[in-house]
């Protein structure tokens, strides 16, 4: 028997003024617990950078959440969390007015409506270790001089000298695959009116470079807030699609505010 589930594809972290298209995520609200195999098969079929699965819980404003890329489950997906917030705010607008909670294992992401066509997520900072030497081969693989390097439990922070170096960086992904690090939040000071720029490299997964990455903000916001002595930070992700981020550094984490738009809205049919 086929089941019908509410479904959308939503672009988040977009900004028309700077032609940033943002990052798309499929979102599906499920009634049933599907197997990991079935969840992965759906994500592979949809071929979006992330597919976000949601389930209701016994509390009306709390939803379980999981994210899958076409080739693997994602531990933390900031753009998927933001897409889920947009979707739930559309499906359950009255509930969303008072805030939502997205729950994955022990992680709780608070989110909700910020304003007209704007939504927010509150996330924990991803802790960084003290400054360290880059892994052997990293500088050569990036083809750029590394100014600072910090290991984290998610993506390592790699700081370059300026925006131009980051924009024209052409990573050697085959060389990066030889290094036992999951990914890199490569960043530099902005040459424009915002605070910093970044790129997200994930050499060990199919995508290689992400479009606009919320988890990279979780790595970088605390670094730049301390470096610039600012609590409100605006930044751009220099991927071909482009991403725009509006972050508020807080004592216990940070708040991301994003623009978004629906690309597809309808029903997903599955067994």
TrEMBL record:
Gene Ontology molecular function: any one: isomerase activity
Key words of the record: Isomerase
Cited InterPro entries: Phenazine_PhzF-like
Pfam families: PhzC-PhzF
Domain of life: Bacteria
GO cellular-component term (any): cytoplasm
Similarity comment: Belongs to the PhzF family.
UniProt name for this protein: PhzF family phenazine biosynthesis isomerase
